[in-house]
Amino acid sequence: MDEYADRIQQVLTEERADTAAQIRALTHDLDGIIEAAAMVATDDEHDPEGTTIAYERAHTAAQLAAAVNRLEELDRALARHAAGDYGRCEACGGAIDPERLAVRPAATTCIGCAR
Question: Boundaries of each Zinc finger DksA/TraR C4-type domain copy (predicted)?
Fold first, then answer.
């Protein structure tokens, strides 16, 4: 592998590890919110203290879903990299600008096709 390919592999692998850690933390948080809600019999919807348990649960669940989606994107990018297809637009087959990949390493389309 050349230096660029090695660097891409490293970036994707590091982002995958970070995302997996985020998923573990969010799962732990969500489990804690659900457990706390089950242990407390309060009128969560009318709590004058601020956000509701339902809101916290929904917010954390949405963050978890986004992280799981990100992990899947990174896994697909790693598979494309292993197959030698990384950096090719899935829509038109052209090259994806390296600047786009620097910002979004799991990008599957070039700027033109993304529009």
Answer: 84-115
Give DSSP secondary structure letters for 7-63.
HHHHHHHHHHHHHHHHHHHHHHHHHHHHHHHHH----GGG-TTSS-HHHHHHHHHHH
Q: What is the pTM of this model?
A: 0.83
pLDDT digits (tens, 9 = 90+) for 15-68: 999 999 999 999 999 999 888 877 765 555 555 555 678 889 999 999 999 999
Residue range of the domain that includes 71: 1-85
